[in-house]
Amino acid sequence: MASTFKTLLNNDVVSTRSMLHEAIPLTGTIVSGTYADNNIKNYTHGMFQSVYDYPYLSSSANHIFDLTAGFSPESGLSASSPTAAANPQQAKKINIYNQMAQILVGYDATGSIREFDRDGDLTGGTKMREVFFVNFARLLNKDEIKKQSFSLTLMCSGTRATAAQTGKFTFQDTSALTSYKVNSPAGEYGLLYNTTTETSVGLVYYQAGIAVLTASVFDAATDFGPYDKTWGNGGAETKTVNQTVTGSAISGSCDGLRNRMVNVSFNNTTELNSTVYFCRVNNNEFNYSANPTYLSASKLVVKNNTSDQPVSYITTIGLYSADNELLATAKLSEPLKKTPDDEFTLRVRLDY
């Protein structure tokens, strides 16, 4: 415990913020079920599907993202009283859409849930009423997805057989650094554009780590349903994307999307807040030590002659509260010799 304290002044303390970025590439081979679908986890509630980078029963498996699908009550796919066989899980699909819209889009002045909009226009624009959701794990997106770094490549046409899937398109949050939207209760988001047609096809919410994609990008798919290797090219139960979204369980829609993913990539962001303390040691300060070993028989052990200057060795910096309680310590890599001829400014950084 120190016996001598020095007060830090306002110009001795500076707060900073740094953004650390990490590239996250996800190949379609992992997403589509590299490990005989053992890295794809479906749940009894049937509300979403989880994707892992390794068989999920393994202790080394990492959760990558969750997939789900839903449609608005205003969608043409929403039947007023469908049979369970014709339209399974309709209530769950509508509930998923409404739940995600509540979180990401919010409510209008009448208290009604807003719909997802391709242009980010809350009052007008082109509504997305049949959508897929890709919810990235916090392990990947950290504090947020970096703006203008998101890229998703999909096979948007052809049959469900991997070899016959065609129409490869890439969707990116083009120009998001300067044109991102802020009218979402979940934070900032950007528009996803088809880089070929330059049309908006979805949204990516940066802080939430969620991508929303309109199902219409697969309108040219002659068979969107989940690919079963036993069926081969074409096979039985051929379904369009709308027929899959309405006539299959949510897991079937998720399978159809996964098997058409080629690549997903983005940069994540870790926000690092720091406080920097400049500990200034003047020439006439801290030349002596309160350490009991500093004295021997009432003499300074670091002095050979009485006329020698006092000397100390700085090894640790302590940051104390106003009532002299030790809050943090910083260790120097090696002892720093201090004499009345020297002055130092030691920089202590606390990250949080």
Account of the protein in words:
This protein is mainly beta and 352 residues long. It has 2 domains: 20-270, no CATH class; 282-351, no CATH class. The chain has 6 helices and 20 strands. It has helices at residues 28-31, 90-104, 138-141, 176-179, 241-247, 250-258, and strands at 13-27, 40-42, 49-52, 63-71, 116-117, 127-128, 130-136, 144-145, 151-158, 165-172, 181-184, 187-194, 200-205, 210-214, 261-281, 295-296, 299-300, 312-320, 326-338, 344-351. Strands 1, 2, 3, 4, 7, 8, 9, 10, 11, 12, 13, 14, 15 and 20 form a 14-stranded antiparallel beta sheet that branches. The relative contact order is 0.16.
Short overview:
By secondary structure, the chain is mainly beta. It contains 6 helices and 20 strands.
List the helices and strands and how they pair.
Elements: E1 13-27, H1 28-31, E2 40-42, E3 49-52, E4 63-71, H2 90-104, E5 116-117, E6 127-128, E7 130-136, H3 138-141, E8 144-145, E9 151-158, E10 165-172, H4 176-179, E11 181-184, E12 187-194, E13 200-205, E14 210-214, H5 241-247, H6 250-258, E15 261-281, E16 295-296, E17 299-300, E18 312-320, E19 326-338, E20 344-351
